[in-house]
Structure formats: structure tokens, C-alpha cells
Amino acid sequence: MTSIEFLYKLKEYLPGFEARPSQNAMLTACERIITSGGILLVEAPTGVGKTFAYAIPAILSGKKTIISTNKKNLQDQLIQKDLPLLARVKGFRFAVAKGFSNYLCLLALRGFQPKTLTEAQEHTRLLRWADETEDGEIDSLAPPSPIWDEVCADSAGCLRHECPHYDQCFYFRARERWFGADLLVVNHALLAADAALWMQTGRGLLPDADVLIVDEAHSLESAFADASTQWVSRYTLENLMREVLALDPRLTVKAHAVLSRLQTLAPAFFEQVRARYPAERCRIAPEEFALRAEAELLLHALVQLRTAIEDFLAKEAPTLFAQSDQRTHLAKIRKCAAWIAEVGTTLLRFLEPASTSSPLVRWIESSANRTALCVAPLYPKTELQEGVLTRFQSIILTSATLSVAGDFSYIQNQLGLEGETLALESSFDYARQARLYIHRVHPPERGNLSEQYLDELARRIVRIIESTGGGVLVLFTNARVLDETAQRLRNRIDRPVLCQGEESRAQLLTRFRADGHAVLLGLDSFWEGIDVPGPALRAVVITKIPFEVPDDPLHEARVERLREEGRDPFNEYILPRAALKLKQGFGRLIRTATDTGEVHILDGRVLTRSYGKRLLQALPQGIEIRVID
Ligand code: SF4
After folding, report:
1. Topology (CATH level 3) of domain 229-377
2. What is the mean pLDDT of residues 369-382?
3. Whose CA is nearest to atom 8 of ligand 1?
4. Is residue 95 within 6 Å of ligand 1 at its C-beta?
5. 3 state DSSP class of 109
């Protein structure tokens, strides 16, 4: 059976299924790359049916394939709907891989010492659940448990073959399924963790595979950037000390001197950091850090503590914890040792001299509740290159937003890769289904929010809500503007105003869909991944062009680096980023061929600035544009 025949066979299983020309084109391109190797970037607008287009050739190739997604929604769609359907046409094995903390650790559960009555009740419930559950996964546990963090599996503390529960271990049983699967679904965070482990040890968490398919590939770079950002805060050290002090007393007595020193050094150090660097976020070069000597003292004490623990683990622990019912102690000690090593590495990276070959960005975060030293690679290109791109014969990266008007250079630069590109036509009739309104509102400069601007914004949003009868998603770039707008809307309209942060995202979406006339206000994460097909969503309001916050340390460092290289940061980095985000926000409106609605951009710079044209070119073409004064 060819991929095209497979696709057409779906008609027998999916009433009303129609293969679309763009889906055929993607399927053919994916088949070619999977057969002959290479990298393919495919922009597949919503409605193309991209999951079938990449999964079918992967299944037919018989090659082991990993599919990585960013959001849980898409992972659930693959595992619960798309892959089971494809498996009815042609049998194949698939599984989903999740990180350690998604699974119950039987060793931690059996060794858990409740400190309160509630914890004791929870412990009893989880012990009962452990006997009943098939998979021991957090997603199967209802209601969620407040002691989950104490009893979930953890890579650093896991005893693996030395564990008395290894044969029944939920995590390792799941891992067997990953290795046996033809097609394994993961998320970008796990892919990043796998890449990091691969770079450190030459072995990953995930099984070796021939083909990697990255869906929602527009967020791959940020997932890797998040995974490679490290920080150490006063809170981290306090927690670490608490965990260490609760370890076996024979160890804590031996390490008493260094523990006492750390208990004095750590809070004093972070007090000094806060006093010296009071700004909310302050980017800093390692040679400019004024508290280097104090940080080195702290680092030295951490190294001594780690040495004391390693020594105890090597010389005394094997005899002391030989009995299987004492292994929990061993796991806790190993976990602490790994944690100390991680904190030490972060401090070391923060202090190490700047390098041009693998540049790092360092910054200090200070607030009443948190003082932290943070460090991240300028771009996670090395992690992507060495940890991912070199390990697969064929790589397909796809998303509805990978290019700016068919130009993939931004995403290729960000990910540090070259490959074949394919920008597919949308299967939606945007000219008929959508209208675009651009309002001549001029947002104030950052930090100059005026009452007048906020009133104007709210007044226009109220008008949109009145004309559409609700069903409006309003996207913001600033939390304060969202709060101020929510207050104003609640005073002026008589329908539910749902705000990000007031309930979980899933709860807000359920209420928004069910109501049909509600207004949903969201920040950054609501610009993508919100999928509300049908009439419950009739309008999307974009309150401002989504330019990145200029003082974000990573953003600032990237802009600076491009300038130093004599390049054009605005056109090569800032504008494409904003254009892709605008496209994502716009994409919330039309989710099916029968959806209709309107998008309002409340930012007149789209009309008055030279870059406005490029932003509009990034949006689906053929839509009627109206200007509102
Ligand atoms: S093998 Fe590791 S994760 Fe599994 S029960 Fe033992 S310690 Fe926990």
C-alpha cells in the first residue's frame, strides 16, 4: 500500500473524510524525506490534516519514529484519536513517553513519612491506588494528590536495578513500551531533556529512532531555551538545606560543619545580591559581578557538602542500607547529591568567563519574594544540533506558523538548520470566512500606560463584543493592560468575562465554549494552542502588535549580538518573531471550513509604520481589510 492509498482508505473508517490537495502534497514530501533522509520544514496551516500527512509515511516506512509536540492537546489528539484510527487501517505499535515525574515511585511511596493527618490520609489513598492502577501515571489519578511531588519518580533519586520495586516500577514498565513502539509520541520538554542527557553521557532517555517529526515546531527553540535555562535562588538553597538536614542523621552529623556554614553563607549571599542588584531583572557579564568572591565561597561549601555525601554513599551507605526496606534513605541521599551538583554547576556557569564559541547570557532576578542568579545559552543551537539533529536520518519540522510569507529564514536561523522547505496553501476560504479590522489606536510607549489609552481600548472592545454578541477572544501582551481591561469590561457588559490566571486554562476554555457568548482574555500562552471551532468563537481581538518585551535578558542579548555582527536585529529577529506570533493569534479564529468571524487589530502602527506591510503579508491572504478610525 502506498501512502496515498493509505490516506484514501481512511474514507472507509472516517465518514465524510476528504483528502485535500495540500495534505497530499505534504504526505508526498514527508514520504520522500523519510525514505531518503534529510530535513524538511513544512508550514501546514490549520485544516491541512498534517498529522495524517506525516504519520502515514512514517508508519508505512517501518522505521522507528519519534513525534514530538509542544502542547498536551495535540499529544492527546494523536494518542486518543489519530493514531488509533490509523492503526485500524494498518496495525502498528505506538506509545507516549513522559518524564519521570509523571509516574508514581513505589519506593518513595512505601518510604513516605506523613507529617500531618491529611498527608496520612493521602498516603493511604495512594497506597490503595498503587495496587489498582495499570500505569501509575499522574494523569490517571483523580483527584490529584497534594503529596505527588514527594512520591513521584525522580531521575536523580531512582535506584534503578538496585530498587526492590524495579520489576513492578511504573516508569520502567512504560519505558519497555517506548522501546517496543514503532511510533513514540513525546513532548518538546522531554526531547530537550533527552538531548541534554545525550550530550552529557552519550545515551538518551528515549530509544534510538530513524525519524523525528517535530509538530508545533515553531516552539521547539523556546522549549529548548527553557530547558537549558538554569537558576539558583535563595529558595532553592533553603529547600536543598531542608532536604539534606532531613537525611539520615549519621550523614548529617558527619557533614555538620559544612552544613552550618552553608546555612549562614546562603542567606547572607542572597541578601547581598538583592542589596547590590535591586532591579527586577539585571543582565550582567561574569567579570562585572561584584559578589564573585562570596559566590565562590558558597560554591566551595557546596562542593565540600557534595564530597561528604559522596564519601558517605561510597563507604557507609552500602552496609547501612543493605536491607531493601532501607533503600528509600539511599534514594533520598542520591537525590540530594545530584541536586547539590546541579546547583553547583549553575553557580559555576554563572561565574565562568564569557566565551564567544558557546555564549551564555547571565542575569539576576530580584524581588521581595525571589532573588536568583540565572544563566542560559544565547541560543540553544548546540543542544539542538548535537542533541537532536545529528541523531536522526530524517527530520520533519511542521507547524501552522513557520514562515513569514513563505520565508523560512527566521526559523532556520533560530534552530541552526538548513533543509527543504514547503509552505502549503490553506484549505480555508479566508476571503469568505474572515474579515480583518485595523483600528487606528496608537499604543503608548512601554511604561507610559495612560487611563485615556486603557479607556479607549476598553471602549473599542465593548463595541466589538456588542456587535458580535460575545464569543470574543482578546489577546494581550501586558498583564496590567489585561487586568485594567477586565475591570472596565466587567463594569460595562453583562456577560461572562473570563481571564487567564483566574482559573486553569482548561476550565476557562470549557466555560468559554459552553457559554457561547463569553469573552476570554488571555496573555502570551493564549496566542497559540487555543482551539475553539464553531460559533463559540466569533472574533479575535489583538490589542497590540506582539513585539517581545525589549528588556527580557535573552531577547536583549540576542539583539545586541546581531548588532555586533553587523546584522539587522529588527528585520532579522524582532519583526519575524512578532509576525509569527501575530499569525498565531490570528489563527485562533478559523479552525474549520465552516467557521466564520472577524479579527480586530487595535494597533494603528500596522498602517502607519513601514513594517506594517510585512506584518500583514504574514497573515492569510485575500481577506478584506477595513480600517476603523
Ligand atoms: S525503580 Fe526508580 S522510579 Fe521505580 S520504584 Fe524504584 S526508585 Fe522508584
Report:
1. Fumarase C; Chain B, domain 1 (1.10.275)
2. 90
3. 105
4. no
5. helix
